[in-house]
Design a protein that fits this description.
The structure holds 2 protein chains of 2 kinds.
Chain A lengths: L2 E6 L2 E6 L4 H7 L23 E6 L2 E6 L10 E3 L3 H17 L6 H8 L18 H9 L5 E4 L6 E4 L1 H11 L10 H13 L12
Parallel strand pairs in A: 1-5
Antiparallel strand pairs in A: 1-2, 3-4, 3-5, 6-7
Chain B lengths: L2 H10 L7 H12 L4 H11 L3 H10 L11 E6 L2 H5 L2 H12 L12 E6 L11 E3 L2 E3 L4 H9 L3
Parallel strand pairs in B: 1-2
Antiparallel strand pairs in B: 1-3, 3-4
Helix pairs in contact in B: 1-3, 2-3, 3-4, 6-7
Classes of the chains: A alpha+beta, B alpha+beta.
The structure holds iron/sulfur cluster.
């Protein structure tokens, strides 16, 4: 694998081909915020908070650093007015779902997000997919999946798989950026309810 | 819906997990909705985790995981149908079937839905029953038409 040299925030950074911009930045001690990123998991680009400005072949564009492969002579900016604006809005949207989310608090301060910009609709989940992907990719159990779509999308534990696998694992709990207990709660609910938790009311 | 029938559908697609959506569509077409028992059979036969099958079954609007009646009624509430009396028509349908949009009656005879436009604005108010279009219906006519369904 070849070595490439790129510039991140005016700093020359050496990286291995095949690395992502996020990995290269972190290896050079440059901080980029992430919420849905996890070293053991494939890039997911759900939270969009790791967005950076990339200049490549004379063009500047926005991209998620967790999924963007490094390239020789690439120029990356991790901070700008536009990026701050984007991250702030993303945080404000997430706050409407998970106002007390543990991992959001520090970012909210840093980017000056307004906690009350959007009406609160607490579902506690920001759809980072960490629990779902960890269970599928690392544990290969698929005990927790996303069900439904669009604004109704939510996580759901499968009763049969969960009752076999989850109590001895529970590794997804601490991954949740919002509230570890939410996963625990939904799991318990799935295990104790008679019908499977995805059989909810019909769509109106 | 019995398991043999589901088995036949799955065999038609050589039991390929990549045909999951097509298989679910066929079952939905035969049975009008996807009962959990059917999803379990699909999961076993395709060797896919049940959770994954549920994820797909709940993702698409084309699938229903709650019972759907033998006859599906779609009342168009698009602008053209609306000004031509869709609301009166809908109320009549609700009256005759005893259900509101989004519901299915206990005998699973009818399911009622409103839709935003069926693209037949010149024929309004339009009602579609089991995919068949009924044009320029009056409440009295729809009431008669619905009585013919078993
Ligand atoms: S429950 Fe938590 S970990 Fe799972 S998708 Fe939602 S926010 Fe992410």
């Amino acid at each position: 694998m070849g070595e490439v040299t790129l510039t991140i925030d005016n700093k020359e950074v050496k990286a291995e081909e095949g690395m992502t911009v996020l990995e290269a930045a972190r290896s050079a001690g440059i901080k980029i915020p992430t919420l849905c990123h996890h070293e053991k998991l494939e890039p997911y680009t759900a939270c969009r908070i790791c967005m950076v400005e990339v200049e490549s072949r004379g063009r500047s564009e926005l991209d998620t650093s967790c999924s963007r492969p490094v390239k020789d002579n690439m120029v990356v900016r991790t901070q700008s007015e536009e990026l701050t604006e984007i991250r702030r809005t993303l945080l404000e949207l997430m706050l409407s779902h998970a106002p007390d989310a543990r991992e959001l608090q520090e970012l909210v301060e840093e980017y000056g997000a307004n906690r009350n910009r959007f009406a609160k609709e607490p579902s506690f989940c920001i759809h980072c997919g960490l629990c779902v992907r960890y269970c599928a990719e690392v544990k290969k159990k698929n005990a927790v999946v996303f069900v439904k779509s669009g604004v109704r999308r939510e996580i759901s534990f499968n009763k049969e798989i969960a009752s076999r696998e989850c109590w001895k694992c529970r590794e997804c709990f601490e991954l949740c950026p919002t509230e570890a207990l939410q996963t625990a709660y939904l799991l318990t609910e799935a295990l104790t309810s008679d019908s499977s938790s995805f059989e909810l009311e019909p769509d109106a | 819906m019995d398991n043999d029938k589901i088995g036949q559908i799955i065999d038609k697609y050589q039991g390929e997990a990549s045909s999951l959506i097509q298989i679910l569509l066929d079952i939905q077409h035969e049975n009008h909705w996807l009962p959990r028992s059917a999803l379990e059979v699909v999961s076993k036969k395709l060797n896919l985790p049940l959770s994954k099958v549920q994820q797909t079954a709940t993702f698409y609007k084309a699938f229903s995981v709650v019972p759907i009646g033998r006859h599906e009624i779609h009342v168009c509430k698009g602008t053209a149908c609306h000004v031509n009396g869709a609301q009166d028509l809908l109320e009549e349908v609700e009256e005759v079937t005893g259900i509101k949009p989004g519901e299915t009656d206990p005998d699973a005879k009818f399911s009622l839905k409103t839709v935003n436009c069926l693209g037949r604005c010149g024929l309004g108010p339009v009602i579609e029953i089991d995919g068949k279009t009924h044009a320029r219906m009056s409440p009295a006519e729809i009431s008669d038409a619905l009585k013919k369904y078993e």
